[in-house]
Each structure stands twice: as structure tokens, then as C-alpha cells.
């Protein structure tokens, strides 16, 4: 029988001991944090916002779950407004009344309140489109089988923020072609030497920070809302189905919190659509102010 020298034997035993320790640690981790195969708890992760491609993989027109949800939201808005306005009546029916209430909310509470009737009429189409588009895509986060907001990935919030910024710049140039940028970057009443500090700050805050904050405010609210809802309902499934027993009581609490937070997410969806639209109206109002 072959025998190993003392040094090799000790190295071999030490190696075996290390393997045993690693195996024990891995087993302990598996017991404490169950894997996906044994029905364990799975916390939400950022990977949910980057789902697998469903159609046209490997092309510039790849469609994943979130993009498909965006298409559904846009189609739903177009369909609702087409049905609600195709046969307008002097005495509106119930559905036409709902559509008119929504449009009047944007017209009166946002556009006319900030821009006045003349400018509100000019910019009402884009403000209405923004409000209902953001609202529809926000609400997909709580609709069964969709369960994620179309605005929770940067694409749509960024595009809408750029449109808002372009509208702001267009309105300012249209109102005062010669004075818009001058009044924006060189506020009146400031001593000339101070412009060395003020002008770069005004440029960054007016023309760079605004679209960034519009984008991040909308996107981050939708991301956090989705992660919290997934956390509540995943915990409910884990406590009631995977663990059962007295853990069911915890599942009841997480389910209740999930349902309450779902209602809260409806409020957040409406509020974020309102904030995005009203900030766009505020920027337009600043652009068309008399000093420009």
C-alpha cells in the first residue's frame, strides 16, 4: 500500500478539512436562505426591470415585457379617448362625461391656472398627452398580469422630460427670440461681476437639472413602489404557502400591508402624473413670462 510523506499527508488532511468547512457553511446558508428550487423567499431585485426579450431578439426592435406593457398602456389611452369622443353629444353620456372631466381637470387645474386661457389653449394638447400617458403607464404597476409600471425604466420618463424641455425652450424663443436666453442666463438686477458665478448656475439649473430631475422623480417613485409591492406579496406567499403554520398570521399582515400599499400606489400614480404635467406647465409659464 502506498504511503504519503508526513508533509504531504498533513497538506492533504488540511485540504480535506477546508472542503468540509466550505460544505458545512454552504449547507448552513442553504438552510437559512432557501434557494429558488425549494420554494424559499425571494426578495425583489433590480433585475425585474430588465426582463427577457419576447419578440425580435437581436434586432434594434427588441420587445420585452415592459415595452409590451407600454404599448398596451398607449393603446388603452387611445382606445378610451376614441370611444369617449367619437360620438360627442350636447348632453353627454356617462363615459363621455368621465372623459370630459379628465380633460377639464388638465385644462382648468393645470393649464389655465398657470398659463392663462390664451397660452393654455396653445399648450393644452401636449399637457393633456403627458398627463394621461404618464397616468396610464403608472397604473400598469398595479394591474394584475402586468404588475410593473411602464415608467419604471428610464426610457419613457427621459423621453417625456426631453419633450418637456424642448417645449419650454420653444415657448421661450417663440415669446422672445432675442431675450429668452439672455434673461434666463443673465437675470436682471445682478451686478455684472456676479454673473461669473450666477450664469453657470442658471445654465445648469435651467437647462440641465430640470430634465434630469423630471426623469428621476418619476422613474424612482415607480421603481420603489414596484419593489415594495413585490416584497409584500412575495412575503405573503412565502409565509402562507411555503411555511404555513403560525407563519400564516404573518402572511395575513403582509397581505394587508400589500393591499393598503396598492391603494397608496394608485394615489402615487395619479400624483406623479399631476406633478410631471404641472412642472412642465410651470416651466412653460416661466418661458412665456413678460420679462422674456
TrEMBL record:
Q: Which residues form a coiled coil?
A: none
Quick check: keyword Ion transport in the entry? yes
> Where in or outside the cell is it found?
Cell membrane; Membrane
Q: Which InterPro entries match?
A: ATP_synth_F0_asu, ATP_synth_F0_asu_bact/mt, F0_ATP_A_sf
Major place of localization? membrane
Please list the GO terms describing molecular function. proton-transporting ATP synthase activity, rotational mechanism
Q: Which UniProt keywords apply?
A: ATP synthesis, Cell membrane, CF(0), Hydrogen ion transport, Ion transport, Membrane, Transmembrane, Transmembrane helix, Transport
Q: Does the keyword NADP apply?
A: no
Q: How does it sit in the membrane?
A: Multi-pass membrane protein
> Please, which domain of life does this record's source organism belong to?
Bacteria
Q: Which SUPFAM superfamilies match?
A: F1F0 ATP synthase subunit A
Xref: HAMAP family: ATP_synth_a_bact
- What does the record give as the function of this protein? Key component of the proton channel; it plays a direct role in the translocation of protons across the membrane.
Spell out the family assignment given in the record's similarity comment.
Belongs to the ATPase A chain family.
State what protein this is by name.
ATP synthase subunit a
Could you tell me which species this protein originates from?
Paramicrobacterium agarici
Amino acid at each position: 500500500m502506498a504511503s504519503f510523506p508526513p508533509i504531504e499527508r498533513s497538506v492533504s488532511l488540511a485540504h480535506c478539512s477546508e472542503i468540509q468547512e466550505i460544505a458545512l457553511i454552504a449547507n448552513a446558508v442553504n438552510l437559512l436562505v432557501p434557494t429558488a428550487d425549494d420554494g424559499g423567499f425571494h426578495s425583489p431585485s433590480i433585475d425585474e426591470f430588465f426582463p427577457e426579450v419576447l419578440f425580435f431578439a437581436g434586432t434594434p426592435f427588441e420587445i420585452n415585457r415592459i415595452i409590451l406593457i407600454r404599448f398596451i398602456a398607449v393603446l388603452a389611452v387611445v382606445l378610451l379617448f376614441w370611444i369617449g369622443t367619437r360620438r360627442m353629444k350636447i348632453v353627454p353620456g356617462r363615459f363621455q362625461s368621465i372623459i370630459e372631466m379628465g380633460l377639464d381637470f388638465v385644462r382648468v387645474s393645470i393649464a389655465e391656472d398657470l398659463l392663462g386661457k390664451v397660452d393654455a389653449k396653445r399648450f393644452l394638447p401636449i399637457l393633456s398627452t403627458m398627463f394621461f400617458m404618464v397616468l396610464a403607464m403608472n397604473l400598469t404597476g398595479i394591474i394584475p398580469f402586468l404588475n410593473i409600471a411602464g415608467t419604471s425604466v428610464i426610457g419613457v420618463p427621459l423621453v417625456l422630460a426631453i419633450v418637456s424641455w424642448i417645449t419650454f425652450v420653444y415657448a421661450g424663443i417663440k415669446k422672445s427670440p432675442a431675450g429668452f436666453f439672455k434673461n434666463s442666463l443673465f437675470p436682471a438686477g445682478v451686478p455684472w461681476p456676479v454673473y461669473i458665478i450666477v450664469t453657470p448656475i442658471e445654465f445648469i439649473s435651467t437647462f440641465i437639472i430640470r430634465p434630469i430631475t423630471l426623469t428621476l422623480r418619476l422613474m424612482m417613485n415607480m421603481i420603489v413602489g414596484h419593489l415594495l409591492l413585490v416584497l409584500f406579496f412575495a412575503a405573503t406567499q412565502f409565509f402562507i404557502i411555503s411555511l404555513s403554520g403560525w407563519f400564516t398570521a404573518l402572511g395575513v399582515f403582509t397581505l394587508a400591508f400589500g393591499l393598503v400599499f396598492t391603494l397608496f400606489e394608485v394615489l402615487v400614480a395619479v400624483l406623479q402624473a399631476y406633478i410631471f404635467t404641472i412642472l412642465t406647465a410651470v416651466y412653460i409659464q416661466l418661458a412665456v413670462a413678460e420679462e422674456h
